[in-house]
Structure formats: structure tokens, C-alpha cells
Amino acid sequence: MKAMGKELRKSGIDIIGDVPWDTHLCLFYQTSEDLLNLLVPYFRAGLQNNEFCLWVTSEPLDEESVKKVLRKSVRNFNEYQEKGQVEIIPYTDWYLKNGILDLQRVTEGWSKKLNHALASGYDGMRMTANTSWLKKKDWLRFMEYVKAGQDATDKGNWLSICAYSLNKCGAPEIIDVVSNHQFALIRRGNKWDTIERYERNRMKNELDRRVKELRCLYDVASISGAPDITLYQRFEEITNLLPRAFQYPDIAFARIAINGREFRSDNYSNTKRRMSADIIVRGEKAGTAEVGYAKAPSNTDNNLFSKEERLLLDAVAERLGTIAEHRQIEDALRQSEKKFSTAFNASPVMITITTLKDGRFIEINDSFSDFTGYSREEAIGRTSIEMGNWMFAEDRHRMLKLLKEEGRVRNLEVESRHKSGEVRVSQLSAELINIGDEPCVLAVVNDITERKQSEELLKTVSFNSPLGIYIVQDEKLQYTNPQFQKLTGYSEKELLGKDLLSLVAIEDSDAVKSSTVFTLQEENPYPCEYRILNKNGQIKWVMQTVSPIHLQGREAILGNLMDITERKYLERKVIEYEELSKMKSDLLATVSHELRTPLATIKGYSTMMLDYFSKLASHEKRDYLKSIDHSTDRLAILVDNLLDTSRMEAGLLKLEKAPTSISKLIRGAVTEARIRDNEHHIVTSLSKKLPKLNIDTKRIRQVLDNLIDNAIKYSPKGTEVAISTRQVDQEFLFSIADQGSGIPAEELSNIFDRMYRIEQRLSSGVEGIGLGLYICRRLVEAHGGRIWVESQLGKGSTVYFTLPIDNAAQIVENKRKMNSRQKSLLRI
Fold first, then answer.
1. What is residue 464's three-state secondary structure?
2. Quick one: average pLDDT of 63-84?
3. Which of 294, 314, 574, 682 could staple 269 via S-S, CB 3.0–4.6 A?
């Protein structure tokens, strides 16, 4: 048997049956059982029908497991193998060369195998290959190879099944696979099913609907003119004919009511899912023609019937009226033909019917006349070549070749010449039909000239736009305009195929993904601000909006970026200014309060002594002087803290580092702390043989004094304050622990902030403006260390800080050598 000039071969797969040479299928599987379920009978049929068979294995099946299964399932398999009719090869030997994918070698390999098979007397070759080994980075190149491979093996005695694991394929990969194969095999439940290319099915369905409508009108006209049947027999036949012309014929019904008689199809149902048209006889309503659906069709919107279907029913109703006007049958026939022409011409797309033999126009609609400039009278009986419609003769040859090989053409983009000489662009689909006994071509043509012009205009606008514009498909950049290239610093070539998220700052990646998903789901632009890192390492702030589009028939994303770096800079400056202003206000309020208290004490006691000096006892004078001295110390500490803070904020803090004995430093701080306070137990736990650290002794002593004083201030009298230190890796860890009331967990992260005081301590009566711990943090960090606090409510707090162990010992040795060298020079 032959199909379209090609010999049919037994596929061994029930759902496919016999197929012609050059059939290329894809198989989606989940388990090894899925593979064996189809590939074993597929190979058995090839071996039994004198075909050379090649199986390229990959996980989950290896070479030995395939041989084992074929020995059990194929009679005389060993004989086939011995005479070289079957080969089983691992993918590493077939696809890879030195571990690298070599598709050129693979393509040449298929041709050599096929030529060898034919030379050896086999009818042809069938093969299968599993792609589970394929890496994501090679996917697009492999798909190009698949498509090119089909073209390369065209007109050869060749059958192939490519297997793809569903566990490794996402939606984009499945679409790629299906679009590059004639059929796809996939298991649905316990049954295997086939998938054809979506666009082919859609266009076929569109053409089928138009053909059904035309055939319906043709059949109605035939019934109208059929001899030897009664008027009511005509109505009954048309009633049964109508459902077949609509989109869902299996659930469609029809009803004709005229002159008191009613005709119904077998599945008639009294439902609201219907439409009707009046049957007019001699200018008056004589009845109605109805078409409806017995149940709601699946996968449809609220519009159950298309405009063309409504026009079709109108035309049928008109014909019925004509039939009823038996005495005016000829006039009625002309009216029906007019309605037929109206239905044909109502299509917004161009429709033509030509003979296959010489391409002469049998019928054209008004849209075609408008597109070409030729009237119906000028076109009927002539060919498109005679009218000069084709801009390029090779486009017509390509269409005819596809029609002869496949019986149809889908979305062929061609350029044609208008009668005036204007060149227009159209998209052509065609299918072979028979009218009477003559093969004809039904063509549907869409004018896409304006769309093409719009695309060119979009490119021009995009090229000159101040916004960065891009198109992403399959998560890769497919288009960028000059402004986008300027923003990122990459050339158009460098950006093509690049992952958009690779340009986004890592911290903003999740926000960009969420914004994009939200916009696509809600179909509402959702601006997103984020940072990108350009080629030169510069950070740019951009504001992005995206919208869904279709690019080359597939879903894509159109995005635009506005450079808002300068705006972000100004916003940051405004925030910094506001924070600085607030800090100054807070500082003035706090400092004025803290200064007023000790000054009031000094002023009060000084005035008291001046006014009543002779009357005051010695111990009273001494107490007043102690209060004045204490308040003076408070003022000195406050001023020192303010000066230190000011230097730090201005970046004027300078460290005078020198090798320092940690043991000596801590003991000195503890000794003086015990003098200042004899109501707490200050204990130390120091590691033995502590090395010297290269630090600013004064500043680290300031840190220790501040932390010890804090521990004393915020812990009850008679409790213990513990100071310890030890080496941890390349750092020295200091800790100052108290047995106070503790710090709430939510406050721990803030206590080292400038002018921060814990709420419960604000009401404790303890003095301070919240600069001490802030200064400690800045001094420790200036030394390359860290500082933090751990606390439990009711049990106390421990402040930790670290100092790095650097080259203090080396510094001491260098100073010793320098002093020695200087002494030698002096002696000289």
C-alpha cells in the first residue's frame, strides 16, 4: 500500500497502525515499562518486515536489558542479531565524542546506517533513541538538530521514534518536542494517545468548519432541487442535515416549524442553548428554523454560535422559505444562491476555491477582491499567475509541493501583488477538497500587511525609546533595544539568549519573579523597582513593567525598564536628611535635659555654700562638694561622649595602635572600677599567657570602662560582675556579665544604636543619653572586631566583643630591632 506516493509500513503500534516512510514520532514516557510497551512491538514489526533496526539506549534501559527483553519478545532474535539486522548501541558511543555532544557526527552516522541498510538488501531502516541523557544547555541545539534531521532524511526509507522522559521535560520542552515531530505518543491513564501539532489542528478545525458550512448549503440546495420527493420530505432531510454543519455535531439538534407542521432531529431537547431564524414565505413569517445543543459543549465561552453559523442558519431558513414557495421555485433558488454567496463572502478572511490541475479560480469572496483589487468577473476562470498575484514564483512552488506531499498548507507567509502594483503580505492556509469529481484547493488567506507594518513601527519606536525594552521567551532574552543595551552595558549580541535574572541583583531576584508572575496572572501592569548590575559592575536602579505577548505563535513577555538611579539617589538623600534632622532634634532635647540636671546640682550647691558657708557644718560642706564633683564628672563624660560621637560621624576618629598587654589592661580597668564602686563583686577570669594585641589602648580601655560601669549600674547591689577573656581561633573574646534584670529579646538588636535606651531602663532613674554602647560598638568595629549582647529576663546580661589577633608580636619585634639599629648608629 502507498500513501501520498509513499509505501506504508507496519508500525507495530496499534494506535498508529500503518505509516509511510519518513514518519518521525516522539514518545513521552515515565517508566521503563512505558518504553518497552511501545518500542518492543515497534522493533518486532521492523525485524519481521525486512527492516534494519537500530536502538540507541539510555537510562532507564541499558544495552543488556534491551537485548534480554527482545530475546523474550521477538522470535529468532539471536538470528536477526547474528546477521546484523539489529544493533543496540549506548548513547555514549552514538551521540558523544570524547564526552562531548557531536551532532554533525550523529547526522552523518544516520545517513551511513541508512545507506548501509539499503545496500544490504533491507527495505529501509527504523530506529529509536532515548534522550534522558540530554543536558539542559544542549536542549535548543538538539531541537534544531531534530528538525534539520527530519529534513535531511526526507524521501528516504526511514522511521524513527525519539523518547523523552516526562520527569525531565517542562511545558516549554514538551511544546518544542511536539512542534518538531509529526505525532507525539503519550499515556493517558491506561491508554496510549497521540498529540498533533496545535496549530495544525486549529487551522484544520477552522477549515473544516468552513467546509462543513459550505457543504451544508450545497446539500440543502441539492435537496431543494431533488426530483421525486415531497415538500415535507425535503424539510425532514434538511432537519437531519443541519446538526452536522455546526461546531459540535454530536450534541447538536435541529427543528423546523412551518405551516403548522414540525420536524425534529432525534436528539431534540427543549433547552435555552439554541438559536433560531425566521422562515419567510411571500414576505410573511411562516415558521422558524432552530439549531441548538442538547447539553453544554465543553471548552467554550458564552458565545455558543459563531457569526458564520448564524449566517448559515439564516441562509438555511431562507432556503426553507424558498422551498415552501413551491410556485416560485426558480426565484427562491436565486435568493438562496444569494444567501449562499453572502455566507461565503461574510468571512473577514479571504477564501478562494481553485482547481488543483491548473489553479483556475472557481470562486472567490469579497475579501479576496478587496485584497487583490480584482473583481469576481476579472478573476473567475483565470489563474493567479495570469493575474500576476505572486510576488515570488518560489512561494507558489512551495505551496504546491506541500499540498502534494501533505495535502494541506498551514500559515505560509507570502508576498503578493495588488492589481495596482502594491505589494502586500499575507498568511496562507490551504487544503485539498473535491467538488464533484474534480480535485480543488480551498484556500484561506489572512492579510497581515498592517501587522507587519506595525511590527516595523514597533521596532522603530523601540529603537528610539528612552525606555529599555526587551522581550523574554523561555526565560531567555530574545530582543533588546539600544536603551536596554546602554543600561546593562552589554551589546545586542551579548544579550541575545541571556537569562534576564542574571542581570538582576541577587537580593532583588525573588521580588522580580513575584512581580512578573503577579502581572501575568492578573493581566494588570505591576511596576517593580529593583537593581541591576551592568557589565562594568555598576549598580543601576530601574522600574520595570511587563505584559504578556505572543512571539512567533508562542507565549512571551514584553518588558520595559526606566532608569531611576538618580531618583533613588535623591530619595536616599532626603531620607538621610530627615534622619539627620530627627537625630539633631532628639540629641538637643536629650542633651539639654542631661546637661540641666548636673548644672542644676552644681548651681544649687554652689549657691548654698556661698550664701551659708559660715553656717554649714564641715560634713555638709564636704557632701555638697562631693555632689558638685560628681555632677562635674557627669558633665565631663557627657561632653566626651558627644565629642567622640561627633568625631565618629565625621570620620575623624583616629586610632593610635600599639602592642598592648591585655592582662594588664583588664586588671587596670577592674582595679579602678572597684575603687569607683565597692558595693558589687567584680571578678575576673583571664586565660594564662595572654599575648599582646595591636590596639589603641585608650579606646579599648574606654570600651571596658563603659561596659563595666553599665554592668554595675543595671545590677542590684551585692551581685557579681564577671569579666573574662579567651582566645577563639584568630580572635580574642571578651565578656562582661551582670546579674541584673535582663533585656527583652526584642530590644537586643537595637541597644548599640545611637541614643537608644531600653524602655524599662528609662524609668529606672539611671542616668545616660544612650551614647555609651553606640561608642563601644564603633570603637570595637574600628578595630575590626564585633560586639553583641545575650540576655535572659530576671537572670542578667552578658556583653561580648572580639578583637582580631594580628601581627602585634611582629610589631614588637620590629620596634626592638629598630631601636637596636638606632643605638648602633649612635655608637658609630
1. helix
2. 91
3. 294
Tell whether the model's pLDDT for residue 570 goes beyond 50.
yes
Average pLDDT over the chain reads 81
One-letter identity of residue 166: L
Query: What is the amino acid identity at position 210?
Result: R
- Give the integer Cα–Cα distance in Å for 294 and 252: 6
Grid cell 539499503 — which residue?
118
pLDDT tens column, 693-739: 999 888 888 888 889 888 988 899 999 999 999 888 889 999 999 99
For 21-46, give the DSSP string. TTEEEEEEESSHHHHHHHHHHHHHHH
Nearest to 127 by CA among 217, 225, 27, 241: 27
pLDDT band per the 50, 70, 90 thresholds, residue 541: very high
Question: 3-state DSSP helix/strand/coil percent for the chain, to nearest 5?
Answer: 50, 25, 25
Surface-to-core class of residue 20, CB atoms within 10 Å of its CB (0-12 exposed, 13-18 middle, 19+ buried): middle
pTM for the model stands at 0.32
Is residue 696 within 8 A of residue 657, CB to CB? The reply is yes
Residues 133, 106: contact at Cβ < 8 Å?
no
Q: Which carries the bigger pLDDT value, residue 798 or residue 373?
A: 798
CA distance linking residue 270 with residue 33, whole number of Å: 49
Instruction: Please tell me the least confidently modeled range out of 61-75, 165-179, 324-338, 466-480.
Output: 324-338
**pLDDT value at residue 638:** 64
Place 814 in a pLDDT band, splitting at 50, 70 and 90.
Answer: low
CB 645 within 8 A of CB 756: no
Residue 827 has pLDDT above 50, yes or no: no
Q: SS3 letters for 647-658?
A: HHHHCCCCCCCE
Beta carbons within 8 Å of 422's beta carbon, 6+ residues apart = none
Measure the CA–CA gap between 658 and 465, rounded to whole angstroms: 60
DSSP collapsed to 3 states, 662-727: HHHHHHHHHHHHHHHCCCCEEEEEECCCCCEEEECHHHHHHHHHHHHHHHHHCCCCCCEEEEEEEE
Q: Is the pLDDT of residue 786 over 90?
A: yes
Around 54, how many Cα atoms within 13 Å sit in the side-chain half-sphere?
Answer: 23
Helix (H) or strand (E) holding 530: strand 528-533
Angle subtended by helix axes 618-650 and 772-782, to nearest 10: 50
The count of C-alpha atoms lying within 13 angstroms of the C-alpha of 211, restricted to the half-sphere facing its C-beta, is 18
Least Cα distance to 50 among 126, 149, 150, 130 occurs for 126
Q: Which pLDDT score, from 0 to 100, does residue 597 have? A: 60
Stretch among 180-189, 594-603, 698-707 having the lowest mean pLDDT = 594-603
Sorting pLDDT into bands at 50, 70 and 90, what band is 826? Answer: very low
Phi-psi region of 248 (alpha: psi -120 to 50; beta: other; left: phi over 0): beta
Backbone angles phi, psi at 601, to 5 degrees: -65, -50
* Identity of the residue numbered 294: A
Give the count of beta carbons closer than 10 Å to the beta carbon of residue 393: 9
Q: Tell me if 38 sits within 8 A of 185, measured CB to CB.
A: yes
Query: What distance in Å separates the CA atoms of residue 122 and residue 158, rounded to the nearest whole number?
Result: 11
